[in-house]
Design brief:
This protein is an alpha/beta fold and 263 residues long. It contains eight helices and 15 strands. The chain is 36% helix and 24% strand.
């Protein structure tokens, strides 16, 4: 595995998902302040769409399934994600970091990895430039487009570079055993390719307007990554020190999905 951290900043952390096109500038600032102190390990940032991309994708009825979606919608969804990316990149610049915003189309083709492009992300990070990419509306073929979620990008990138740390930052502490008691599941093991906690069920809240599937999708993508032998941490991004501590390999409040041992 490469000595590098792959960090997903969820849309529920960096935006107000109930307020269309409104970034959570305080949360972004606090995360940037915390990440600016992370000198021990290079990292790559992936971020979600929150009330930017998701707002427009719902309005134009766009999904992860490839289809000839409305051309205006394709343009608006993409540009809204570029705008959110710029907000994050500019905040990182203000706090002394060296971010490099780029869309997934620069290292994927029809949602498939371009190996040299993804390898370049790791090379950039190792040399002091922080790649900051995002879920986006991507071209598939002819008139077909598709939403490529940030969660799916995480498993695609992780599968290529095998990072030593994989972190999903959400607006909750991790996975709850049930949504009523909010009892946190500290560790999850993979059984038959899916995430299990022994006999206990994992609770998922309603996805609402999150067309990429909310927490259920995150756990599914995290399980894909864990199946490749990498541990995955789900932590509360509104507590930025937890992101940094997880990247440093420290024990933090959150849920760890244990990576299967490589054969």
């Amino acid at each position: 595995m490469k000595d590098i951290a792959l960090i997903k900043l969820g849309g529920s952390v960096i935006t107000f998902k109930d307020r269309p096109l409104e970034a959570n500038t305080k949360a972004i600032r606090d995360i940037c302040i915390a990440l600016a102190g992370l000198k021990e390990i290079p990292f790559i940032i992936v971020h979600g769409g929150g009330s930017f991309g998701h707002y427009w994708s719902v309005k134009y009825d766009m999904h992860t399934k490839p289809a000839p979606y409305d051309s205006r919608g394709v343009a608006v969804v993409h540009e809204s994600m570029v705008a959110l990316n710029q907000i994050i990149v500019n905040a990182m610049l203000e706090h002394g970091m060296n971010p490099y915003g780029l869309p997934p189309s620069s290292f994927t083709s029809s949602r498939r990895p371009i190996k040299s492009g993804i390898a370049a992300l790791a090379t950039m990070a190792a040399n002091g430039v922080i790649p900051v990419t995002f879920g986006d509306m991507v071209h598939i073929k002819d008139a077909s487009y598709s939403i490529f979620s940030g969660d799916s990008l995480m498993s695609l990138i992780a599968g290529q570079i095998k990072p030593s740390r994989v972190i999903f930052a959400t607006n909750v502490d991790g996975i709850y055993q049930d949504m009523h008691s909010k009892k946190l599941v500290a560790e999850i093991e993979l059984q038959n390719g899916s995430a299990k906690t022994g006999s206990a069920d994992i609770g998922f809240g309603p996805a609402g307007t999150d067309v990429t599937g909310g927490m259920k999708r995150k756990v599914a993508e995290a399980a894909k990554i864990a199946s490749l032998g990498m541990d995955v941490m789900l932590v509360n991004g509104l507590e930025p020190a937890r992101i940094v501590d997880a990247a440093r390999g420290k024990k933090v409040v959150g849920t760890r999905i244990k990576g299967l041992l490589s054969s």
